[in-house]
Amino acid sequence: MSSTKLNRRLTRWGSAALALSLAPACSYAPGTRASADPAQSVAWQSQTHEVSKSEAAPAPEEAGPAQASAGAVSADDSVREKSKDFDAKADVARASPKKVPAPAAAPKPSLAMPVTAEMAPEPEMDNAAGAPSTPPPPPAPAKRMAAGAVAVQTQPAEPPSQGNSFTHHAANAFTETATDRFSTFAVDVDTASYAVSRRYLNQGALPPHAAVRVEEFVNYFKYRYTPPEQGAFTVHLEGAPSPFNANRHFVRVGVQGKIVSRSQRKPAHLVFLVDTSGSMSQPDKLPLAKEAMKLAVKNLNENDTVALVTYAGSTRDVLSPTPATNLEAIYKAIDTLESGGGTAMGSGMQMAYKHAVKKASGNAVSRVVVLTDGDANIGPNVSADSMLNSIQGYVKEGVTLSTIGFGMGNYRDDLMEKLANKGNGNCFYIDSYKEARKVFETQLTGTLEVIAKDVKIQVEFDPKVVSRYRLVGYENRDIADKDFRDDKVDAGEIGAGHSVTAVYEVEQTGEKAPLGTVRIRAKAPNGTEAAEQAFPFEQKMMKATLDGASPDFRFAVAVAATADVLRGSPSAQGWNLATAQKLAEGAIDGQSDREEFSKLVVRARGLLGNSMARDNR
Q1: Average pLDDT over all residues of the chain
Q2: Chain centroid offset of residue 386 CA
Q3: 430-460 in b/e burial notation, b at 16+ Cβ within 10 A?
Q4: Is the full-model pTM beyond 0.90?
Q5: Quick one: CA torsion of 106, 413, 127, 86, rounded to 10 degrees?
Q6: pLDDT classification of 344: cutoffs 50, 70, 90
Q7: pLDDT value, residue 311
Q8: Buried b vs exposed e over 179-197: b needs ≥16 C-beta within 10 Å?
Q9: pLDDT value at position 351?
Q10: Residue 229: other Cβ atoms inside 10 A
């Protein structure tokens, strides 16, 4: 073949490769709708397990350059600057699912359904705008799935990823008080769900229904609860008429943990367990995780120590326990981290816990901090259950756990949340340098030090006053009523300065009497027996009008309602997000996080578009 013909053929091949590299890639997550670059229009269809109907929405009205991802941060930091471009590419799309019969809504306990199946896309799928920098591989062959499973496809990578995965929990239904007057659940101070959903919205897409956990939306924000003068926490109760239904009221149960100053907290030994596998190579994963660790170390005390363990194809001790004051040595160790290889997360967990347990005591905090996208795919312990089984002994010795999630495309929210719940810890998601500061600087003491463990809340409603009720959220924190006083049953933890808020929707009988009693049962951080407190929910705590309620109450209701709509809750059908937006805007109270939320509601309204109009016809 002549060199001229060869050059022409190579040119044609190069053009074809370039075209392929610019084609939008398809990566599917369970329950996700089509995601798009902010400059592109979005089309999606959704279907909840409670309601069997398809919804279609037009492009968001606000789509444009202003919709920069929440992961985009200041340009003076190269890591943060790179994440701007990545955020437009890292999201996922979903093929329109086939209709499945809607199961009957069950009361307690709620049903959980892991969604992690893989399947080829359906023909009517809308691709996510924003192609990866390399051509996507061909789609995987279709697999036959069990009836009712969610069809998803992932974009293979090195190592293979499963796509973003979340666990679906059916929304709590209304309960007849005469049948069951008790509502019992474990506290939850995690905030990962809100941060993940915020990223979806900022990228011009609605979050998957399964990604939205109402309690994590509500508890992301600060409320002006008075801290306790004695003991671990105080309780704040309030209620007011619903803005969505004239026959209902919202009531709020707020728990405020005691505040511990940085100088007063116990010495901490942190073992950073860092995922350095190939899937962590993107700018908003390992590079951002390294910045987050530096923030944490910078805010530690002189009596604190830090160790560093990594895992990829194998585990590695990078830094033995080192005084937090030795910033040079710690930063140098962090800077050496590079990504590559598979993800032996289970083996890494065992090594990190072995380090942490050596310093666990009643006088010190010993915590494993996992920084990962959660994509465990090799090694003896891949599932959350197998990992937890291998470390249960260390958990009983007092080692606590923080799971910090990064990135999109193969994010394992289901794994991260389960590990945190069972590891006596908390779960966060970091999508920007700003969020890293919130977790590792502003809230560091609460992130590190537990002030009460196995904290359970039980609300007993009086059937003479409340005819029906439903807890908005906390579906995966449900506890059997009979287990409230069983101290062997695991529950949630509260960190120093943390608050916990729960929102109920209730229907009253008209009887003017106390609504019921709120009970809290909890153990000391190193205790084995729980103490119990009871607080009456007096009728005087119910405001005659919504405007008469506190800004904190109105904002909490706005957040809970927005999350309930975004997750497709049957009880929220017909609710108007314009009302939630107005409620939030009137309760910003000078807080930047609340102002950001109000703007997200505007964005969500644009994305929901005609689907809400159809639902309200």
Answers
A1: 76
A2: 22
A3: bbbbbbbbbbbeebbbbbbbbbbbbbbbbbb
A4: no
A5: 150
A6: low
A7: 86
A8: eebbbbbbbbbbbbbbbbb
A9: 84
A10: 7
Distance separating alpha carbons of residues 604 and 611, to the nearest angstrom: 12
Residues 6+ apart with CB under 8 A from 617: none
How far apart are alpha carbons 224 and 241 in whole angstroms? 21
**Whole-number pLDDT of residue 384:** 62
On the question of pLDDT at 449 being above 80, the answer is yes
Give 370-415 pLDDT, tens digit per residue.
999 876 654 455 566 777 777 777 778 888 899 999 999 888 898 8
Burial class, 114, CB count within 10 angstroms (exposed 0-12 / middle 13-18 / buried 19+): middle
- Rounded to 5°, the CA angle 314-315-317 comes to 145
Q: SS3 of 532, please?
A: strand
Return d(Cα 313, Cα 325) in angstroms, integer.
31
Distance between CA atoms of residues 144 and 118, nearest Å? 10
88: region left, alpha or beta (phi > 0 left; psi from -120 to 50 alpha): alpha
- Count the neighbouring beta carbons within 10 Å of the beta carbon of residue 169: 23
pLDDT digits 0-9 by tens, 213-231: 999 999 999 999 999 988 8
For residue 245, the SS3 value is coil
Q: What residues contact 195, with CB distance under 8 A and at least 6 apart?
A: 70, 220, 428, 429, 430, 431, 435
Place of tokens 């969020």: 435
